[in-house]
Amino acid sequence: MLVHASRQRTVGFSCVPVFKVSLVRNSVVMAVEAKDERRRVPVGTKLEDRWQVTKILGEGAFGAVYEVVDADRPGKVFALKVESNADDPEGPPKMLPLEVTVLRALRNIGAKYYPGYESCGQNDKFNYVVMGLVGKNIDSLRKTLPNKRFALRSCLH
């Protein structure tokens, strides 16, 4: 765990909790424990008697992403994103509520090009959202590029 306490700034959005970050050389630094056990979901776990965890796809500062199968639709796979629901003022901000709000809004307007929203919920350890499984994450794609960076044009589209 880290935190540079020189200059702290409070950041928040209307639909997610307020959080504090530290600014160090123009970059945001947050206290994060990379292996947060509260967001671990063992393979084989079943949520809502429907979503069966089959494997972990990735893990980062904000949470983890798993592949899940739908018991109601055999053969259909989805992504399960989880984040710890522990109240940790020095931990990363809770972003899933905002993500769920955006996914629901996109579904409600009939958007075509988004991963899809299936379900969301929480238990005593984590908050989660089930959404469409779309492919590689942005960081993996970035690392395949010759200079390991996206062109400005790609970022703007």
UniProtKB/TrEMBL annotation:
ATP binds at residue 81. GO terms for molecular function: ATP binding; protein kinase activity. Residues 51-157 form the Protein kinase domain. SUPFAM superfamilies: Protein kinase-like (PK-like). Gene3D superfamilies: Phosphorylase Kinase, domain 1 (3.30.200.20). InterPro entries: CK1_Ser-Thr_kinase, Kinase-like_dom_sf, Prot_kinase_dom, Protein_kinase_ATP_BS. Keywords: ATP-binding, Nucleotide-binding. Signal peptide: none annotated. It comes from the Eukaryota. This is Protein kinase domain-containing protein. It comes from Romanomermis culicivorax.
